[in-house]
Amino acid sequence: MPSAQVIDVPQSDAELARRASKGDAAAFRAIYDASFDFVLRTCRRLGLADADAEDATQETFLVAHRKLAAFSEGRLSTWLFRIASNVVTARHRRRRVRDALSLQWLRPDDREAPAADAGVLAGEAARRVGEVMARLSPRKREVFALYELEGLSGAEIASLVGCGVETVWTRLHYARRDFMRIARERGLLG
Amino acid sequence: MSGGENPRRLREGGDRLAKLLDAAAQDQARGVPGASERVYRGLSGRRSLPRWPLALAAGLAAAAVAAFLLRTPRLVLRESTGAVSGSVDGALTTGHDGAALLERRGLRIALGPDSALQASPLRLLRGQAAFLSTSKFSMQAGALQVEAVQALFAAAVRDRPAIHVRRGFVRAGGALVKEGARWPADAPPPDALSNALADLAADPSRGIRSLAQLETPPAPRAISAPADLLARARDEERAGRYGQAASLFAQLAGGDGAWAGNALYELARLRLRDLDQPAQALQSLLEYRRRFPSGPLEQEVALTSIEARLALHQPDGALADMNAFLDRYGQSERAGEVRWLRASLRLRRGECAAARPDVSLLLPDPRRGDDAAFALAACAQDEERNSAPLRDYLFRFPEGRHRPEARDRLATEPR
Question: What CATH number does the domain located at B76-207 have?
Fold first, then answer.
């Protein structure tokens, strides 16, 4: 089971952020290098496909760069996670509308035939799981991704999303219920 | 579950779901070669200096303007396209290709083409205008006295004045005109302003976009070897280089003739579906409609326009486009889909009553009967606390797409 990746920044997060916000390119690059994998993986865990995840990662750092001056305490990973999650949610919202419409315009025989086995290819599995994740509410999506896919503990998730552990379990319960329902509707569970 | 225990993860279940999640998790954890540098390069191109000084300046300016407007409820020109003059006989006038968005405290006005509006007292002298008011105000449309409170309506002054109320109530010359009604009853709809009305309702700041179609166009120029240009654009698109393809289509769209019409549509399609640029896509579609009002792609353009407005989160604009589509192409093979879409949009907004006519029409449709039956059943439960149609749905559609949700609804219905 993969474990949480802690961003290992040699100086305090607040100090790096302060320097980066004042235009220190090396400080920003240090934050970027230390956090890139975490942010990209977060975007993918939350249901974005590769190209989209890269775009969302870029957008996350862009937002972070603009708001670095506002970061004063806590962990950068928590702060970046919140930004990434918001960016991903906005992308899912846009894509949901577009996909729904695309389906509306396609004639039945134009539509993609379902694959015979949903679990054969990892890439295909990620795409299908991503489609289900896209339909979860943002808070449920976060908890589901961090627990079921990233493999974090309840306490780690609570720290990352900023809530109590009991709240994590409550959200996970409903996230699982919704995930199963959507996956069942899409024929992913047989 | 206590706070200290971690429940068993779904990936540990050994079933089909576990395998799916495990495969997905492994795929998501793999590295993407070159991604870090690629993203950083893109970031370097887009990053800018901290913006707070600009934001502060903009905020102060906005506050100053707001304070000024609060003291002085006069009409302010917000944006304009095409030829606009502010002082023809003391009125703001728009030319044949002009349009303007105006505002004053509690009121926004989208002034159509060939129109004249006197600011004080507020009077539409000729042409058409859409009004969105958040407070009580009165005006004249020609000689007709109009009063409104929190209403969205269009006024037209042609050979005689007319009012079309989209939202709220308006008193026109002593008669109360209700939502959705026109005065006089046989007045034609305000054609050039239907989208402006919808946009004003959805987001006042977007009102000008619908009017942008009235901009004076650059004169089409001859394009040499348009077939070659088209072939290159298609090659770029096939190779996934959508930006380059869009650029070539845009060149072609600047020309004249059928090439330009097709290119405008292709450009809109690319911007919407591949470049995630719905606003620009909508502009291309509006340009197509302006330049080719009876073009062969009009129906496709209308459908894509609906899609673009939904992507822009302009549900009212999308509804206006759907209404227009169904009015014009009610017999089209796509009409059922648009009807379903319109119903879905209304259902999502909780407007069961408004959606019911469309949904009922779709009941016999073999492709939509399942969806329609479930939608009606869900409405009955939500609005009438009547769950019998849901049970009927489960009985009639043993393979129905909405069975899980129908069962959830029945399982959680209040006793």
Answer: 2.60.120.1440
